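Example record

One chain of 178 residues, shown exactly as stored in the release files.
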Amino acid sequence: MWRVGFAQAMAVAFVLGAMGVPWVSAAGTSPPVDHSAHYRTCVNSSAAAYQINPRLLRAIVRVENGTWDPWSVSINAKGQSHPQVVRSYQQAVELVTRLWKQNVNFDVGLGQVNTVNMERFKVHPVSLLDPCVNLRYAARILRESIDRHGYNWTAIERYNGHNPHYPWKIHRALKELP
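Predicted structure tokens for this chain:
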């Protein structure tokens, strides 16, 4: 995980906060803070559009993107996720555009939508930096998984690929959500 000094963390938090973007240091040891209130309208409308419990969508975002950072980008290599340091929207745009052109496997935004789904839906990753757009695609991906597997833990696991530990992470996040 990316670790920063206290002064740097406070400076970044101040700048992001001034821009209306919630931010929590990855270096912190406390459980993730639920910043979903900033995106409540988008969560609720996306969940309603795909007939998904909004609490489940919040839990998925909490597991995928613990800090509710809409500019979050992670590169996937050799079965590992490698979060990238992104300090601005423009930096996120440049990064996802470069990764997209280089055909790199990566995840972007609140729901950590993967390049496989970007290609499938023919959506450019820059549009997924918009939190509401990203949540809409995350809900769609989950809905398709539910339609294939039923409203069960297998469907939730398939949101993340084939990771048998993923449903347990979601279960834990659901218990922690207010």
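Notes: The helical segments are 6-18, 40-49, 54-64, 89-101, 115-121, 131-149, 153-159, 166-176.
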